[in-house]
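ok so dumb question maybe but i'm new to this and my supervisor (M.) told me to 'just get the structure for 3-hydroxyisobutyrate dehydrogenase' and walked off. so i did the thing. is this what she meant?? sequence i used:
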Amino acid sequence: MHDSVAVIGLGNMGAGIARTLAQTGRSVLGVDPAPEAAARVDDLLPVVDLDKAVADADVLVLSLPGSEQVEQLVDRLLEAEPGHRLVVDTSTSSPVSTRALEQRLTRHGHSLLDAPVSGGPAGAQSGSLTVFLGGRDDAVAEAEDVLAAIAQRVVHVGGPGAGNVAKLVNNLLCATQLQIAGEALRLAEAADIDPARVVEAVNGASGRSAVTEVNLPRWVLSETFDSGFPLGLMARDVALATETARSLGTPSPLADVVSAAWRDTRDRLGAAEDFNRMAQPERTQNR
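this is what came out, is it supposed to look like this??
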């Protein structure tokens, strides 16, 4: 078992991951410049600066906004020139960037896994995340105990960058399904039919999905909109999926339309709003 782990980024996801790891008996350090970072981890672990984390922890678990911040972290790590470090990046990042960073780190004796997650803050806090894992087999074996502590399901999709491709595919599908589910709910309302009854019917038929079975009843029809995943991040992920498709020469005409719709909804409602508002019924949109 890796005894020393640093979690870099103590937002909604990183704080939950750090707390889960600390509760397994490991020595865990947190890194986040935000004044409220210590409160997010309830003093279960010390919050330190990045230099101390890189020097003291064998494993660096990243929970950062995106590729730019991950690239900056790798620059700092290479400047510090510590011994071998295992970097487990749970951020959702560009697969192209991930592959380049993995090569850089490997040349300097380190290992990198792209390990974006699904399951939200609740999954992070309970250690029940799903991990889309990309990386070399030796790095996967090295990270096994850390991943087992934070995740209920780990799927090794392929080599470096594959985890981020799989996560972007997942979020593209979820975003598309949520958008069309919202249109379906508004169709039901226009026909003067209770949307909840329509969802109940669909969930026993071929049109059902995780969105209709989970998102609609839990956050949309209940009007709670408190999943913990902001609309701005989903809009970013869908845009990143279309950018990745273009970089690989793969046409994605439907995804391009979906991305534009998410961008417009983000601009209209605000990036901090819950992503499930994409499917909110007409009556709540007009409030």
